[in-house]
């Protein structure tokens, strides 16, 4: 009997747990390494300042109705939007239900992964409970998250400042800032979480930012906002983006302006929330509390930090000087940590002045080692949402490595990467603040669904779609126009991955559950 191929999976968030489960079901011998002492990824709260973690007060940006794994429904007991503790509990129960914990090594800190001397296997250099080890595997999947390596801005004169200057990765509690004057750099979702905690206890809170952003509320007219997105609407949007990119960008930007205006009314120009960059080039914020705090005066908008002038003195881009600042918290995002994967090559396309871009086919596979390495730690773009898409990615990877789904030659991959990098460069020329890990959503999702064998083509406008419409009108309508639930990815029997017998009832139940909306008074 042929030996099972061995796989090391790095990280026990939703992607890592799904990868462990899927690969194990498909005949691989899998071991998952997690540096924390529990599953959950960033939803597993940690006091360790070197780890990115959701705060105890953090609430999900997406509702439970569009969240969850393909074959493990969200329990009814959870509220509309889960807390940090509830998300961790959900993943813990998922791991226990599918008996995953026995194949997870906790307190395992990854140093790096390289090829062995014979170039036949991967050498995984890891420290387990303080003891360095080198372990060999046939294949490796990096699922340790794209929010791992803190991006700290280069702040002129920082050495003169005697107050605290930290990245949001280090922040854990507002208690240490009680009565102090704090500048939070950024107005994204993480900045909003921190500002929400600071405003009741700090002496004064400022938000320093150089440009605006689209800020959505979690509720829209008494309904969770993500329920307004359906598969059919998403497909129509991607059709426009693929075939009419300039027109679709204009339409999306007009739609965002309308939503911002209808949600917030007239915004004070001094806050500089508007104008905002195109939603096709950057991710939005769900920090509704930023606008409410600006309106009630508990938060003050400032321009970007120009330089530190002294012990507690900061000058901003518009010439404003504040001489009594106690702390600066930089909610300035993260970058993928490729230090643990030194084999990943990078390059710069022509007419591009941004950071080097990782050469990963479909933002996942290094061309030279596509048959044995995959990196899910690069990009947060292109997915419905992280949880619901975790299983699609793991099914796709498993099918590729099992030979169920073909992939092109290395030469073709390299050419496709070049073409993708040229596309990224064209986005950069529109906005030089873009994240180079961005993807063409229609291409990325189409490839993964095809490779995973989810059968989503049965919901389209082609012959298969019409056939399904005639055979099962109820499910066709629910899956196209109802709740965009991940259970749909397990509904069709395609022969490329395991279908789930409970998918039909789970889809019906998800659509039944949202009939309570709209809820009066929820905005």
Short description:
This protein is of the alpha/beta class. It has helices at residues 14-25, 84-97, 189-198, 231-243, 245-264, 288-296, 386-401, 410-430, 441-452, 463-471, 473-481, 503-513, and strands spanning 6-10, 29-33, 104-105, 108-115, 122-128, 131-137, 139-142, 149-150, 164-167, 181-185, 204-208, 219-220, 223-224, 299-302, 305-308, 314-316, 321-322, 327-330, 334-335, 346-347, 357-358, 373-375.
Q: Give a quick account of the main beta sheet: strands, pairing sense, barrel closure.
A: 5 strands, parallel
- Determine the number of helices (DSSP H or I, runs of at least 4 residues): 12
End-to-end span in angstroms?
A: 60 Å
Please count the beta strands (DSSP E, at least 2 residues each): 22
Write out the strand line-up for the largest beta sheet, numbering strands in chain order.
Answer: 3-2-1-7-22
* Percent of residues in helices: 25-40%
Proportion of beta-strand residues: 15-25%
Q: Pairing-aware structural class of the strands and helices?
A: alpha/beta
Mean pLDDT: 95
What sort of overall outline do the alpha carbons produce when their principal axes are compared? Answer: globular
Low-confidence stretches: none
- The value of Rg in angstroms is 23 Å
Account of the 3D structure:
The protein has 523 residues and is α/β, with parallel strands linked by helices. It is built from 12 helices and 22 strands. The chain has helices at residues 14-25, 84-97, 189-198, 231-243, 245-264, 288-296, 386-401, 410-430, 441-452, 463-471, 473-481, 503-513; strands spanning 6-10, 29-33, 104-105, 108-115, 122-128, 131-137, 139-142, 149-150, 164-167, 181-185, 204-208, 219-220, 223-224, 299-302, 305-308, 314-316, 321-322, 327-330, 334-335, 346-347, 357-358, 373-375. Strands 3-2-1-7-22 form a 5-stranded parallel beta sheet, covered by helices on one side. Strands 9-18-10-11-14 form a 5-stranded parallel beta sheet. Strands 4-5-6 form a 3-stranded antiparallel beta sheet, with no helix packed on it. Strand 15 (305-308) and strand 16 (314-316) form a beta hairpin. The longest helix has 21 residues, at 410-430. The radius of gyration is 23 Å and the shape is globular.
């Amino acid at each position: 009997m042929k030996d099972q191929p061995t796989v090391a999976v790095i990280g026990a968030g939703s992607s890592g747990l799904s990868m462990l489960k899927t690969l194990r079901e498909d005949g691989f011998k899998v071991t998952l390494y997690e540096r924390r002492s529990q599953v959950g990824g960033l939803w597993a709260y940690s006091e360790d300042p070197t780890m990115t973690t959701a705060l105890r007060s953090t609430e999900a940006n997406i509702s439970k109705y569009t969240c969850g794994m393909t074959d493990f429904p969200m329990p009814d007991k959870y509220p509309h939007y889960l807390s940090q503790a509830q998300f961790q509990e959900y993943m813990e129960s998922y791991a226990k239900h599918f008996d995953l914990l026995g194949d997870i090594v906790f307190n395992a800190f990854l140093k790096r992964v390289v090829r062995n001397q014979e170039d036949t296997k991967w050498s995984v250099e890891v420290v387990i409970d303080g003891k360095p080890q080198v372990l060999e595997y046939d294949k490796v999947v990096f699922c340790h998250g794209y929010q791992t390596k803190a991006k700290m801005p280069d702040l002129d004169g920082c050495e003169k400042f005697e107050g605290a200057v930290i990245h949001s990765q280090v922040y854990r509690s507002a208690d240490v800032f009680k009565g102090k004057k704090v500048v939070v750099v950024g107005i994204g979702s993480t900045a909003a979480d921190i500002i929400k905690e600071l405003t009741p206890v700090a002496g004064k809170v400022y938000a320093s930012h150089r440009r605006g952003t689209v800020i959505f509320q979690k509720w829209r007219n008494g309904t969770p906002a993500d329920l307004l997105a359906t598969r059919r609407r998403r497909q129509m949007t991607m059709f426009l983006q693929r075939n009419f990119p300039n027109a679709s960008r204009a339409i999306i930007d007009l739609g965002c302006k309308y939503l911002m205006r209808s949600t917030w009314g007239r915004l004070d120009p001094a806050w500089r929330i508007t104008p905002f960059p195109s939603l096709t080039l950057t991710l939005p914020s769900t920090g509704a509390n930023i606008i409410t705090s600006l309106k009630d005066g508990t938060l003050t908008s400032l321009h970007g930090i120009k330089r530190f002038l002294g012990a507690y003195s900061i000058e901003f881009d518009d010439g404003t000087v504040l001489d009594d600042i106690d702390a600066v918290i930089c909610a300035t995002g993260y970058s993928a940590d490729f230090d643990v994967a030194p084999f990943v090559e990078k390059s710069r396309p022509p007419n591009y002045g941004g950071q080097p871009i990782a050469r990963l086919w479909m933002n996942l596979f290094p061309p030279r080692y596509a048959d044995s390495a995959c990196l899910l730690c690069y990009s947060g773009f292109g997915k419905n949402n992280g949880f619901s898409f975790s299983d699609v990615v793991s099914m796709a990877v498993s099918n590729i490595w099992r030979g169920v789904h073909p992939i092109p030659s290395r030469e073709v991959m390299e050419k496709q990467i070049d073409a993708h990098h040229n596309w990224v460069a064209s986005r950069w020329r529109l906005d030089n603040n873009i994240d180079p890990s961005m993807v063409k959503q229609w291409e990325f999702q189409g490839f993964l669904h095809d490779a995973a064998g989810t059968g989503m083509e049965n919901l389209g406008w082609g012959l298969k779609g019409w056939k399904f419409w005639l055979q099962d009108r109820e499910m066709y309508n629910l899956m196209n126009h109802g709740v965009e639930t991940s259970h749909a990815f397990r509904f069709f029997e395609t022969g490329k991955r395991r279908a789930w017998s409970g998918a039909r009832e789970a889809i019906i139940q998800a659509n039944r559950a949202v009939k309570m909306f709209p809820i009066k008074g929820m905005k």
